[in-house]
Amino acid sequence: ICIETHGRERGMKRIATRYWLLSSIAILIMTSGPSLAHQEHFEKMGVALPKKEKIAPDFKLKNLVGDTVALNNFQGKTVLLNFWATWCLPCKEELPSMQRLYKKLGPLGVEVVAVSIDRDNPDKVKKYIDQYNLTFPILLDPRQEARKSYFIMGLPTSYLIGADGRLKGFISGAREWDSPASIRMFSALTN
Predict the structure, then answer these.
(1) Between helices 89-105 and 180-190, what is the axis angle to 10°?
(2) How far apart are CA 170 and CA 161, in angstroms?
(3) Torsions phi, psi of 170, nearest 5?
């Protein structure tokens, strides 16, 4: 009888250990799932993730009508912050997809903010806005102050900013912003 009881105790301990192990694995999968999903969406778009999320540097720039706009005006929204110039061909190529993204996801809390670093004639920027029927905010950075605070070396360069105002990722080069991968990425950021 002692042998059978000892064998049952061992069996019960094994069952308990397996149950605990499987429960722990399930909890890890459930809690890490969303971040893994975010990483997959970010990787498909070529987004470099920060080691530590920091608050996005705020700035105040003028738009084409002379109004001052601060980045923190968009607090509470997911922001695609894009740096571009009229002389940059890849920048010109991605503007239409940014407009389509804005039209599709703007009502869901995604804001597109494009900062032109052109130093001279704002009429060139206005020409692009008219040519591509751009309705998202376009800001002017002729003194390159915002560009410097974001350490922009090449164009186009974009940052993803969460609704919490923190930098979620960095993108160097042009993207098709309304692609299915981009839509999934922004949907993951807004949820």
Answers:
(1) 50
(2) 9
(3) -135, 135
pLDDT of residue 2: 43
Q: What's the pTM? A: 0.81
Burial classification of residue 114, based on how many CB atoms lie within 10 Å of its CB (0-12 exposed, 13-18 middle, 19 or more buried): buried
List pLDDT tens digits, range 25-61.
444 333 333 354 567 888 999 999 999 999 999 999 9
Nearest to 108 by CA among 133, 83, 85, 80: 80
Contact between residue 149 and residue 59 where contact means Cβ atoms under 8 Å apart: yes
Place of tokens 């940052």: 159
**Cα gap 57→190, rounded to integer Å:** 20
Residue 47: name the closest of 190, 149, 184, 164 by CA. Answer: 184
Q: For the chain, what is the largest distance between any 2 Cα atoms, rounded to a whole number of angstroms?
A: 95
Residues contacting residue 53 through CB under 8 Å, at least 6 positions apart = 162, 166, 167, 168
Could you give phi then psi for residue 138, rounded to 5 degrees?
-120, 125
Please write the tens of the pLDDT for every residue from 129-173: 999 999 999 999 999 999 999 999 999 999 999 999 999 999 999
